[in-house]
Amino acid sequence: MRTYLDFEKPIAELEGRIEDLRQTESQAGVNVAEEIERLQSKADQLLGDTYSKLSRWQKTLVARHANRPHFSEYVSHLVEDFTPLAGDRAFGEDLAIIGGPARLRGRPVMLIGHEKGADTASRVKHNFGMARPEGYRKAIRLMELAERFNLPVVTLVDTPGAYPGRGAEERGQAEAIATCTEKTLGLGAPVIAVIVGEGGSGGAVALAAGNRVMMLEHSVYSVISPEGCASILWKDAAGKGESKAPDAAEAMKISAQDLHELGVIDTIIPEPVGGAHRDVRLTAERLGDAVEAAMRELDGLSPDDLRKQRRDKFLAIGRVGLE
Fold it and tell me: Which of the four, 160, 185, 203, 303, has the lowest number of CB atoms within 10 Å?
């Protein structure tokens, strides 16, 4: 059953009527094809109109959609021969970050990404994509392995942020994130990062400091969640009055379109009309096209060239209009 967001209620009503008519047609043998076609055309137009003018808060809701494709689905549609490698060789395994060698359209790569899970049990298992220190240290280990064998690193970022729990802090969460970010920036192999859902704070940056940084059209990327920002700026507490989170989302400019304009990311990958969850296969195909093009652009660059390109790219962020 399709899940609809609050702003999609008019679309839900139309598509519900279409489904009812199809059931009537199949069960009662009544020919309502013409009416179905008319309503479908109307629903398609409404869907396109709605998604062409989403607010930044609505994009946040789409990025968090329960049916939005996660890492495991991209593995199924995007790569072959994926072999997950476990453990950080220091403490244990963290299933919020998964990674290992794979073949992307025939090319060997090291694929690393956040996994949120698709249902309650798997979300708990993967800690909702919020990694602990061992997850970032595992990512460092896999990046070092990729560098040793000159494999491009492809990261799929989708996390509300690193896990803020006591155990994670006791095991050096801040140090692990900082070291992972340093490793990503200093790697002698190409790094291509794609924000496919939420890119939350340092937990996202640790895997997103690449030579090429891309975002799916309706993903978001920010230093803090809109709710977190609202709680700091306006003392906004959940359940107490009207939420300021939509105002925070607008102020922070967290959409792919904002970040492309600001020079934080390089490419926006178009999503199917209605979001990535409406056509996972097409989304994965477009993502694969973008990653493949980026790998071709980086082919032939030496480790020093890759490091310099990455350094120059990130040092240039924030200099818009200052020169």
Answer: 303
Residue 116 domain boundaries: 61-316
Same domain, 38 and 86: no
Model pTM score: 0.91
φ, ψ for residue 3, nearest 5 deg: -100, 130
Confidence of residue 12 (pLDDT cuts 50, 70, 90): very high
The tens digit of pLDDT for each residue in 202-234 reads 999 999 999 999 999 999 999 999 999 998 988
Whether 161 and 201 map to the same domain: the answer is yes
Are the beta carbons of 96 and 159 closer than 8 angstroms?
yes
| Identity of residue 137 | R
Beta bridge partners of 107: 104
Burial of 287 (C-beta count, 10 Å sphere; 0-12/13-18/19+): buried
Among residues 171, 91, 197, the alpha carbon closest in space to that of 138 is found at: 91
